Amino acid sequence: MTMSRIPRVVIIGAGISGIAAAITLQRNGFHDFVILEKGSDVGGVWHWNHYPGLTCDVPSQLYQFGFAPKPDWSQVFAPGPEIQRYLADVVDQFGLRPHLRVDTEVVTAEFTGTGWRVGTDDGDSYDADFVIAATGVLHHPAWPDIAGLDEFTGDILHTARWDDTIPTAGRRIAVIGTGSTGVQAVSALQPHARQVTHFVRSPQWVIWAPMRLSQPAFLSTVLDRLPALNRALYQAGMLGAKAFTDVVTRPSWRRRLVQQYARLSLRAQISDPRLRAELTPDYEPLCKRQVLSGSYYRALRAPNTELVTTGIDAITATGIRTIDGRHHDVEMIVFATGFRAHDYMRPMKLTGRDGISIDETWAEGPHAYRMTAIPGFPNLFTVLGPNSPTGSIPLHHAAEVSARYITAWIQRWSTGEFDAVEVTDTAAERFGTEVVQALGPTVWNTGCNSWYITENGKIDLLPFDRRTMETMLSHPDDDDFHLNRSSR
Ligand code: N01
């Protein structure tokens, strides 16, 4: 391939999206890129999260890059540390370390008229022709505003910033929140704690799944020796994922069947009618990000666990007081209260064309054309950005598809076809309208509150299937963009 000029690219974030972007650039012959990572290592959400019980509830065969299949996952649902190691191994295998700056937080990024100037917390700046924001959705821990939080004299932890030096065995622990994280944390803490009190504001449907099922050693050996079989397994997994996308995006008997299974999971494991009533959500299964567990209900039935569904009034020096006046003495409070999922790219000060800020552009919530391009922000693309399919399509695959799309633009820049590419307002608005229309029949739109929903009440997900996503990102669509040449 002949190139008339070499693009300089800054990738922000070394999680799944950033790694996908870097490797895609590299495989297309672009090597002048730097990955700026705020954390001390790669892995993104799998670097930051290391709370007890952290397990991926997506089967390992699907939770990996298509270009870097791992034959020997220890479990069908991999434990968090193994996923972190996998991502670090991929970074090494593809020689990305020389491009990586860890402990480097991007604080500013400004469009200069011809490219970007990116500033970091240590005072450095990087000039780039393109910026790829791979900053992750589940990054900022959400700390609820509960009265008395500062009064507590014991240990306070957020699951997303776990401190491994704080002991948990033999202690009285409160866990607040019952998303995927809270359910996993309660299951892992209960066997060793003296007492676990689980504070549940709104119960979740918890589908039974064998989360600790080992991947048989012989299968790992066979997949290692027969890469073609490993690829076939990955493709088979993609078909399974397709069925799941169908279930969440279109009402059908298939959706109802999965929902029945969710209800059965509760009925079959909780026989006490009072406890079952407390654990029964008032919305349809699958409406929130579905929780999977093979151990949570067992942990709840244990004598050292208590479920508290009465609202929290305040935190005191020695525990938590609920609105019925009862005081729950605890030595440690674990906040499994999720993330500020819509602060994507912030608090970075991102300034686009004509001085427009990302905060102004996203005053009514994050939005981007086909998940990746934002009007007013030329030569900047997001990977797993707004409206990404976090609830329906394998994420590594979605990141790879977006990375290929972005690389196609960069390729065209390298031949001198344009200097700046910017999505039009019309195209971005049209995409937004298509998304809203397609969200109508999705299960996420059946009346529940979840982290999928922005403060402005929009569902921040992709309501399309994998093929549609692949088609929309298969090639740059010139009609939807301004291609500008500058006189530099
Ligand atoms: O967070 P969540 P999460 N008082 O937002 C409660 C991914 N993940 O960290 O529903 C009391 O789902 C809140 O209650 P309510 C996965 O995508 C993946 O668990 O608002 N409670 C809710 O119960 C997942 O969906 C894996 O009433 C309060 C909880 O906190 C996403 O991360 C593993 C409260 C927050 O649930 C986020 O999951 C783990 C308050 N003031 C996570 N404020 C995998 O296996 C909030 N809550 C891949």
Question: What would you note in describing this structure?
Answer:
The protein is of the alpha/beta class and 488 residues long. The chain folds into two domains: 9-140 and 340-484, FAD/NAD(P)-binding domain (3-Layer(bba) Sandwich); 149-204 and 288-335, FAD/NAD(P)-binding domain, CATH 3.50.50. It contains 13 helices and 21 strands. The strands form six sheets. Strands 3-2-1-7-19 form a five-stranded parallel beta sheet, covered by helices on one side. A five-stranded parallel beta sheet has the order 8-17-9-10-13. Strands 6-5-4-18 form a four-stranded mixed beta sheet, with no helix packed on it. It starts with 8 loop residues before the first strand and ends with a strand. Residues 55-58, 138, 144, 146, 176-182, 184, 199, 201-202, 289, 312, 336-339, 451 line the site of 3-acetylpyridine adenine dinucleotide (N01).
